[in-house]
Amino acid sequence: MAMKPESQRRALGDFLRTHRTRLSPSGLGLSSGGRRRTPGLRREEVAQACGMSATWYTWLEQGRDVSPSPRALVGLAETLRLTPAERGYLFQLAGKADPSMPRQTGNGMDAPAALADALSAIKAPAYVLDRMWNARAWNAQAARLFVGWLDGQNDRNLLHYVFLSPLARRVLPDWETRARRVLAEFRADSGRYLDDPELKGLVDGLRERSAVFARCWQEHEVEERAGGERSFDHPRKGRLRYEQIAFTLASRSDFKLVILTPRSNRKRKN
Fold it and tell me: What residues pair up with 242 in beta bridges, in sequence order?
């Protein structure tokens, strides 16, 4: 059996430990048992709750090269109260397919040649991200909205823009909350690529250049890149509001199409 990369095993251990310490014993119907030396659940309690030996679970947290079954991972996800995005990330780190999810396949093709034309036909701001969250294509509406990222001759990586660009702190309302969410969404996408030199370089570079990124990366937050309202403080147009929706391209599962449909930007009357 091929060994999982050390970085992937270590990330799995950190992820499990982070979520274990966030749960209270009462969440599993357990007594707190007086003062505890560490916050959250004990390793033995997690192991017992999901039907795994304490030794086996400890090895997972220690980053040893053990291979939990999909059934064991399902038990862990349920015991740790993981969200769907966190559960997907857990299975990615473990190198296993989630039995509750349909199998996805790719054909190895590059981005469709007609992608730029397709984006041009979309009236709302729209762009496509690759697996490192570099913008690979975008329309004119997106370029006008994302000043400092998709306009001019800028770095096209979304994480670089959010965490390193001074302009992003002005354009994105409640910048740190928004930045944390972007990173949590990126982590949900990146679990399968943790040993990729390009990904490691991206993360290491951002950890060195952004204290906020370094702190948030250690918190192991995971969220799906889902829909919802997104606001922008545009330097010329003021506060703009959109509804975000995202799609995975059928021909490239590592490419995501993001569309921002305008919402009414007029202030509501009380």
Answer: 230, 262
